[in-house]
């Protein structure tokens, strides 16, 4: 049996494959497109290996002195007169991190190492970028260069360019021990530099140093791609024909590269800025306050609600205080203390901070609502509020202030004070006592003629009787009147039974109506109506001495659950951030007032005293 031989073309193909495999990594070369560049420019590192290589070079050794902006790879296969030639190349774009004589270290690809190279990086030209005709450059500006700690520094970065930029990225400011805030959005305009017109992108930052000493602002960096007229290393004619027929001076460089949109990466650096941060002046620390506010301007303002300051006991008076500071953020401003006032309960609200971006600055505000609830009638002086701050323009300390405020508090509506009912009862000439006087003192339910007899002896005493004689006569008349009233009451007890229920019915009607309104307000989650109807309910049950506000009612009831529910109602009334009030809790713990049962029992038993 004869063995069949393989075709000649198949044997040649296998031989070529073996040849390629044996020569795949015979050589790894390295070269730079330039060996001398200036700071801010980029350089191309070109690696080329024989044969087809699937691996990638290890670029970590380059990171010591270079920033790697990109890595591109490609391969080439040539067949000439039956001879096959293959190669793989990589183009690595490098941006030197500093000047001087830099060594490009050997790189490794699939066990092969490239030779080391040397690159000279010279300092940037002394002439300005615009005067040198650079198509892209960066300017920076800092104000002030010697700020106070926590004071604002305006840092401006301007990017100038007169060639198209593609995939451009401008780095943000990098700084330690500082708070950085970008002011507004980027601005775009045109400007003239060195007799040339440039597009400008301007970005502004507010920087607040948090530590004294030197503060370094890193140099801004632009990574972008710009048009490349030469397009060396990326032109298809160079790869397949060993050159570009359109690159002769006749065609003015490489118009084909421009038509194909060829670009090259660039990295442009600005200049780093160094600041000297000053500490807080010693004289400002002597003011005895921990607040340190270095600003261009600080003002305090206030608003009152109600504006006419006409309040009664238990009514809230809201004071809204606003701090406005130019050159500071709202978060840097302090929370102002409310200040304690005897006889006034204080409800400070949580402060609200905000920051507004201005053209070349920032302005911070902090607003706080403080509710004052007077517990008794009289005149009260709410204290002034002062805020020490440091003027960075004049370099002196100043004080912002809102003055003291006097408030006149009237008694609750319908209540003339605890002594008013007694004086009215003693000085009344009416034969029919009012329902409130009857409810206030059951003893005065006797015929009102007794009040008339009280006034007559006093007049005689002033006319001629001695003091002790008048007093004796007064007691005698009162004793006789009481004895006569008792005797008269036993015979006409049915009249007393008719008179007392009339008063009791009025009290019950007022209390029942107020109680129903209170329950309705709790179901509707209406804190204002709940407070109003609850105090009316209590006043109907304690007309002689109604509780002053919710605090007075809580002290009188002395129930921890009711006290907590009333405090929750207080917060809903006087604090804007308290949120929605749920009245079900208060309605549950306050189903009835203890006074209603006690007063009803006393009044029902009164007719039996005269039986």
Strand and helix map with partners:
Elements (H helix, E strand, L loop, with lengths): L7 H15 L5 E5 L3 E3 L4 E8 L15 E15 L2 E14 L3 E5 L3 E2 L2 E2 L3 E6 L13 E8 L9 E9 L4 E5 L7 E5 L4 E7 L2 E14 L3 E5 L3 E7 L8 H6 L13 H5 L3 E7 L3 E5 L4 H4 L8 E2 L1 E9 L5 E2 L4 E10 L17 E5 L3 E6 L4 E13 L3 E5 L2 E7 L4 E7 L2 E6 L9 H8 L7 H6 L8 H15 L3 H25 L1 H31 L3 H15 L7 H9 L2 H15 L9 H6 L4 H16 L2
Parallel strand pairs: 2-9, 20-28, 22-30
Antiparallel strand pairs: 1-3, 3-5, 4-5, 6-9, 7-8, 10-11, 11-15, 12-17, 13-15, 14-15, 16-19, 17-18, 21-23, 23-26, 24-26, 25-26, 27-30, 28-29
Question: Please, could you describe this protein's structure?
Answer:
There is one protein chain. The chain is an alpha+beta fold. The chain has four domains: 8-122, Immunoglobulin-like, CATH 2.60.40; 136-276, Sandwich (Immunoglobulin-like), CATH 2.60.40; 288-410, Sandwich (Immunoglobulin-like); 498-609, no CATH class. Helix content is 29%, strand content 33%. The chain has 14 helices and 30 strands. A hairpin with a 4-residue loop joins strand 25 and strand 26. Helix 8 crosses helix 9, helix 9 runs antiparallel to helix 10 and helix 11 packs antiparallel against helix 12. The longest helix has 31 residues, at 493-523. Residues 18-26, 232-259, 417-465, 493-503 and 596-611 have low confidence and may be disordered.
């Amino acid at each position: 049996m004869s063995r069949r031989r393989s075709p000649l073309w198949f044997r040649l193909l296998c031989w070529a494959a073996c040849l390629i495999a044996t020569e795949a990594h015979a050589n790894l070369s390295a070269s730079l497109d330039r060996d001398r560049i200036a700071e801010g420019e980029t350089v191309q590192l070109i690696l080329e290996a024989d044969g087809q290589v699937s691996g990638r070079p290890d670029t970590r050794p380059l990171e010591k002195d270079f920033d790697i902006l990109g890595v591109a790879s490609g391969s080439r296969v040539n067949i000439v007169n039956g001879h096959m030639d293959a190669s793989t190349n990589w183009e690595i774009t490098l941006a030197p991190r500093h000047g001087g004589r830099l060594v490009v270290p050997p790189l490794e690809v699939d066990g092969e190492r490239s030779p080391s190279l040397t690159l000279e990086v010279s300092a940037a030209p002394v002439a300005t970028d615009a005067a040198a005709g650079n198509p892209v450059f960066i300017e920076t500006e800092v104000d002030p260069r010697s700020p106070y700690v926590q004071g604002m520094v305006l840092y401006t970065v301007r990017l100038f360019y007169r060639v198209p930029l593609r995939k451009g990225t401008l780095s943000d400011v990098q700084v330690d021990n500082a708070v950085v805030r970008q002011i507004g959005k980027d601005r775009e305009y045109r400007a003239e530099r060195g007799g040339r017109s440039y597009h400008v992108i301007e970005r502004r930052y507010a920087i607040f140093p948090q530590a004294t000493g030197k503060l370094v602002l890193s140099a801004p960096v632009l990574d972008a791609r710009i048009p490349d007229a030469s397009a060396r290393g990326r032109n298809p004619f160079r790869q397949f024909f060993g050159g570009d027929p359109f690159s002769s001076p006749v065609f003015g460089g490489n118009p084909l590269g421009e038509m194909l949109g060829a670009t090259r990466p660039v990295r442009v650096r600005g200049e780093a800025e160094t600041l000297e941060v000053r500490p807080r002046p010693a004289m400002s620390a002597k003011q005895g306050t921990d607040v340190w506010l270095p600003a261009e301007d600080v003002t305090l303002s206030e608003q009152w609600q109600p504006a006419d300051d006409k309040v009664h006991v238990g009514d809230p008076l809201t004071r809204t205080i606003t701090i406005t500071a130019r050159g500071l953020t709202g978060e840097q401003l302090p929370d102002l203390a409310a200040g304690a006032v005897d006889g006034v309960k204080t409800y400070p609200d949580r402060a609200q901070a905000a920051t507004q971006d201005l053209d070349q600055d920032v302005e911070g505000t902090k607003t706080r609502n403080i509710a004052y609830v007077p517990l008794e009638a009289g005149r009260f002086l709410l204290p002034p509020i002062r805020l020490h701050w440091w003027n960075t323009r004049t370099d002196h300390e100043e004080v912002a202030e809102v003055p003291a405020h006097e408030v006149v508090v009237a008694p609750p509506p319908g209540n003339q004070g605890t002594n008013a009912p007694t004086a009215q009862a003693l000085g009344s000439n009416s034969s029919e006592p009012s329902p409130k006087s009857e409810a206030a003192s059951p003893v005065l339910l006797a015929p009102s003629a007794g009040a008339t007899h009280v006034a007559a002896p006093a007049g005689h005493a002033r006319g001629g009787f001695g003091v002790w004689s008048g007093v004796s006569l007064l007691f005698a008349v009162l004793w006789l009147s009481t004895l006569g009233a008792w005797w008269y009451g036993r015979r006409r007890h049915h009249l007393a039974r008719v008179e007392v229920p009339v008063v009791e019915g009025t009290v019950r009607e007022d209390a029942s109506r107020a109680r129903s309104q209170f329950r309705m307000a709790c179901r509707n989650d209406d804190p204002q109506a709940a407070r109003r109807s609850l105090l009316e309910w209590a006043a109907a049950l304690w007309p002689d001495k109604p509780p002053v506000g919710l605090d007075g009612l809580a002290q009188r009831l002395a129930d921890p659950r009711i006290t907590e529910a009333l405090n929750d109602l207080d917060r809903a009334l006087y604090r804007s951030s308290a949120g929605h009030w749920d009245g079900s809790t208060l309605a549950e713990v306050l189903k009835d007032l203890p006074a209603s049962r006690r007063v009803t029992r006393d009044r029902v038993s009164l007719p039996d005293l005269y039986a």
